[in-house]
Structures are given as C-alpha cells and as structure tokens.
Amino acid sequence: MNNQRRDTLKAGGSLGMLGLLAAVGLIKPEMAQAAWNKDAFDAKDMDAALAAVGAGKPAESAEISITAPDIAENGAVVPVGVVSKLPKTEYIAIMIEKNPAMLAASFTLPEGTAADVQTRVKMGQTSNVFAVVKADGKFYMTKKEVKVTLGGCGG
Amino acid sequence: MASPMRIRAAAKEGVTEVRVLMSHVMETGQRKDSSGALIPAHFITELTAKHNDKVVLSAEFGPSVSTNPYLAFKFNGGAKGDKVAVTWVDNKGETRTDEVQVS
Amino acid sequence: MRKQLIAAAIGAGVALASPAVFAQQDLNFDEYRAMLEDGNPAELYEMEGEELWKTARGPKNATLEQCDLGLGPGVVQGAAAQLPRYFADADKVQDLETRLMYCMEKQQGIDPAEIVNGKFLQGERRQMAALVAYVVGQSKGEKIAVDLSHPKMKEMYALGEQAFYYRTGAMDFACSSCHSQDGKRIRATQLPNITKPEGAAAGWGSWPAYRVSNSQFWTMQHRLWDCFRQQRTAEPIFASDVTIALSVFMAGKGNGAEAQWPGVKR
Amino acid sequence: MNSAFALRSALLSAAIVGLAACGKKEEPAKVEAPAPAVQAPAPVADDLQPKVEEMMLASFKANGIASLDRQKQDAVQKACSSPTQPDAETMKRLEAAEMATIQWPSDGNYTGGDWKEGQKIAASGRGLTWTDKTPDNNGGGCYNCHAMDPNEVSEGTIGVSLEGYAKLRGTSEEVIKYTWGKLWNAKAYNACSDMPRNGYGGILTEAQIRHVMAYLFDPQSPVNQ
C-alpha cells in the first residue's frame, strides 16, 4: 500500500478555517472571496459559455486532444483528459454540449505546468465534449463525442 | 466537516505528476429528494495546487464535475520530499487543504 | 429515496440514452473502465477505514488492532483473499463483514444488533463499509484462496450453490436467471457467468466496489442485498446464512484468480 | 398481490401433487477449481433440499410489500431451480397448468393500446421491490433483457431480440395470441422461461399488456421502424 497518505496534513474542514489558512499563507486571501466565473458556469449554450470565458469563436485545432472513452458505462462519471500541444497554453476549459450548464471545469496553468489535465465529469446523455484552450493569448478548441449508456435493472 | 483528500505526487525525469481524489458530494442543485424537494447545490468551486510555495494549478469547477472529484496534472520540477498542497473551496464557503511530500 | 435520486440523476436527468447506430453491437467498456482504475474513489473509503481500524471506539473504547481476520490478531495483509472461512472461536463460517461484526462486538463492545438491524450507508454499517474497504485494499491483486476443507465450509458451498439456482419471489428469478450464461447483459450492464470459475472470480473479486452511478461504496453484503431486491424476494437479513452461503460458493468457485478489490463499478 | 401469490402457489402445488421427484435436484455439473488449496466441493447431500428451503425462508424478513410469502416456491419455481430442466413430460404438465391461467382480452382487443405508453412500460424496470410503496404501477422491464427499438443502445441480451417484431413475424392471429399469452404468462410456453409471468403474477395489468402489445405490433412503433 501507498503510505503517503499518512503524511497527509489534516487541515481545514470548516468555515472558520478559511481565514486561518489565509493567515498562515496556505491560500491567498483573494481565493476566499471567490473569483469563480458564475456567468460561465451558468451559461446555457455554447456561445454564451464561450463568451463568458472570453473565448469568442475559437478556431478548431488539431494540436488539442481529448482523452475520453467512446462509450461510457455511466454518465455520472465520465473521465475526460485534455492535452494541448499549442505553445504557451495557459488555460483549458471542458464543456459538455448537452448538459444544462455546459462548462464543467476550467484550469489556469502557470508557466511550468504541463498542458495536460484529467478530471471526471457528469453527462446527462450522449454528447459532444469540447476542450477550449487559450494559448499565447488566442483561443482554440476541439471536440469528441462520448456515448452514455444505461445499465442495471432500473428498479 | 470535510474529509481528507487522497493526494499522490510522484517526481520522474524532472516532471512531477499529481493525482488528487477529493471527498465531496458535488450536488448539482437540480436533483430532488423522495419528497420532491430540491436538494440544494453544494459543490467545489475553486481549487489551487501549490508546489512548495508556488501555485502550479488553479481550477474552477462547476456542478458537472463528478462526485468525489478526481484531478490529475503535471508540472516541471519537483524533487522527492518537496511539498505539494491542494486547497479547495466550495459554494458554501467550506474549504479543505491537504499536503503530501513528493515521492 | 435512493432510487429517486438516481432517477432524477445528475442535473440533466438521465433519460433513455441517446439513440446510436450500433444497437446490435457488443458494448465495450474496457476503455472506460481502464480510465477509472487509477483514482478509484474507493480509496477515500480505504483511508477512512484505516483510521477507523486504529481508532478506539465502542463501550470498551478499544481499537480493532487485535482483531483476528483469520491470519492471526491484527494481520490485515492478505486476510480478505482467504475469506469467508470457518472460525473456531465463533464456531461459524464468517465472511469479512460478519467477522468484523464479531470483532466489533468482542473487542469494542459494539452490539451486533446495531449492525444487523441497521441500514446500509448509515451508522455502524457505514463504519463497517469503510473498514471493509481498508481490509480488502490490503488484498488487492492477491489470489482468492478460500479453504473449503472444513465440513461447515463444504456445507455452506453446497447450500450456496443451491441458493444460486433457487427461483422465488414475484418475478420467479434466481441468481442463475442473470448469471449462468456467458456474455449476457441487463441493459448495458455486463453480467458475469458465476457458474464458471472465471465468472465467479470476476464477480467475487471486484466487489466491494465504488459505484459511479450513485457515488456509493458497496460491500458484498450490500451487493447481495440489492441483487435480492431486484429479484423481488423478501429482504435478506444482514449476515444471514444465505449471504454467507452465496459468498462461499462464489469465492470457492473463483479460487485461484486475482482479486481486484475494491472495484469501481457502474 | 400477496394473496394472489399464495393462491397461485396453492393451486399449482395442487396441480402437481405427486411430482415430488421434480423437486429433487440432479447433481449439478462441477468445475474443478484451479487453486491448489481447494478441495472439490462436497457432493450435494440427500438431506440438503429441506435445509435449502429452510435457509431461503429463515435468512429473509418481510419488508413492506415484499412479504415472506415470496420465499415459498410455487410449482414452476420449484421445478426450475436447478441447472437442468425437468423431463419433457413434467415440463408439459407444468406448462398446461400455466396456460390455464392466461386471461385473454375480454373484448377481443389485443393490440389496440398506445405504443407510446407501451414504450414507457418496456423501458421501466420499476416495481414490486421492498422499496416500492404499492404493488401497482410497475414497469415491464422489457429492455432489461430484450432489444426492441433498434435505436436504443442500452438493451439487455438475456432474452431474444424483439427488434422489428411485427415486421418480421407478421400480425396473424396466431402470432398475436401467442404474444399476448407470452406476456401474460411466459411459463405457459416454457415452464422454465427466465421471463416473469407479467399478467398472472400481477406485475402488469391487462391495459398495460395491451400497451406493450401495441409497442410490438403498431406499424408506427419504433420497434417496427
């Protein structure tokens, strides 16, 4: 077994900790004030979501690849990875075309962090998954369809 | 009370790969309970990862990220024994930070 | 409650999955499953269970560190791969959960009735599930090696085999209705053929598991309980003979194969 | 539901009085387990059967609509609880008893249901579990085991494909009556069928079965596209 977990710092967990963490420098004060892009996460269609992240109409790029299964056994957990080979990639967003709110997650990558992230998203139905990338100040995108199936007795 | 994250950070050939599992309901706010009442939204909104004191990733999540979120990323540098810390904040203002040593 | 949550599902509401052109094709989820293997959220339960194992609890304020899972007091590594087994101290065949319940009673003073009469995902059964995750995690990749030599194990195996084919309930189902042919599915869910060693090993060796469809960690007792629910029988009692017998049957038939628990399942 | 079940058990048990032999199991085929630590499973003892029956009762408890009556086997359940089917004569006798339970539509209307309703019933696997509050409004669970609409991916494979049902099988009186009967009580045609006895077991109502019939036979139904 991996014993690393024993080194896990047991910090945080309550509302009051936030200030404390900020005070000890674990997080920046501005984080506590939530710069979360509400407009982008509330966007109900592609154009609105792209506008809210400042992407406008991104060009398709073959330099971006999406790693996701062709077919998912369940829509509640769909693994999605995005790799960008575009130089100076600084931002990656994952959008699900047919979800009620399209934007699932966005990542800001400081210099030195690889343009290679993986997460898992919920998909209500078979849909295109979009990867929107900002590189050297410009936006690009690519897409991949993931089919979602139903299993079990349904009882 | 937020539960601990499971963080693994491994350095190999000058690159550190970080994998994180977070314990969080990621409730969308659109599901109903058995009495038909909406279950309030409760999800992680922001996440920051640091290598020693340097921010190596910041992310924003929406409710479409799966329950018990998983995240994997890589950054240049990092040596055995360095610290990697991950902090998340959710829409209710709850937060959690966990830290591991790079292996 | 659970059902409605699933039915209402994840924001968008999972209706019938969208039409696709390959209805008659085999559904191949290998790629999907491979991508979930690393970072199985069951690891969160393993962490919790390991803490719990070492935490003094119950009326006797004791830890479980002296619990004998069959390989001696406190030995967790490899123990799950050899369960269920006959335990002389209890004079019973016990699966992992029954054994943990026994240890919780003897060492911590926790009343087994609290577990037997409880509900999955709640109270002491919730704690039990975390302990189960920890213990099976310590047998990850080990070969299933259940000793069937004791007469009581032999009897349990035979009873389990009979129970497997026992049709009853409102829809006439037995375990065998769904699990006795190769390559069958319920909806998109692939079903192991438990009448064969490889199928039995696939079933036995991948539960307990984290279920992505409802974000829950299910023990084998929980898995069997819900199988019977879907079979439309009456409710099986926690740790009852039928659950132990079916477990001995599956584990015994799967003997020799590698267990990949805790699993990650639809 | 429960009383219907008890009645059914009683009737069918009565119908096969004297067939005690079919409750007896043939020796199931054994597959040698690969591991060295394993002994061959013990042979099934003659006295195992009562123990199994006792266990299948004692290990369960009633919960809501799922009463302990469900743990008592009726004639076909008992006869079909082994890897091998009963002999042909026994099968025939069981099937005849099941056939007699089928209720044919009182007004001769077999297929006049709404295929859209039928689709919902076919897709729903709900009902009759101990978490269901009433024994009514059940799904048919058809898609759990059968392919129906060619565009549906998430379809089971335990049962035969029903895609293009009427297109392939036609709409003769024989086919229509067989289908109604099969939906009402599948055991009338194969005593050990995996398919539940929808009408006889009170899983679906006559009206629901008519909707499912429409889903299978209506030329507009996706099944026949």
TrEMBL record, chain B:
Domain Sulphur oxidation protein SoxZ residues, every copy: 7-100
SUPFAM superfamilies assigned: E set domains (SSF81296)
Xref: InterPro entries: Ig-like_fold, Ig_E-set, SoxZ, SoxZ_dom
Protein name: Thiosulfate oxidation carrier complex protein SoxZ
Protein species of origin: Thauera phenolivorans
Gene designation: soxZ
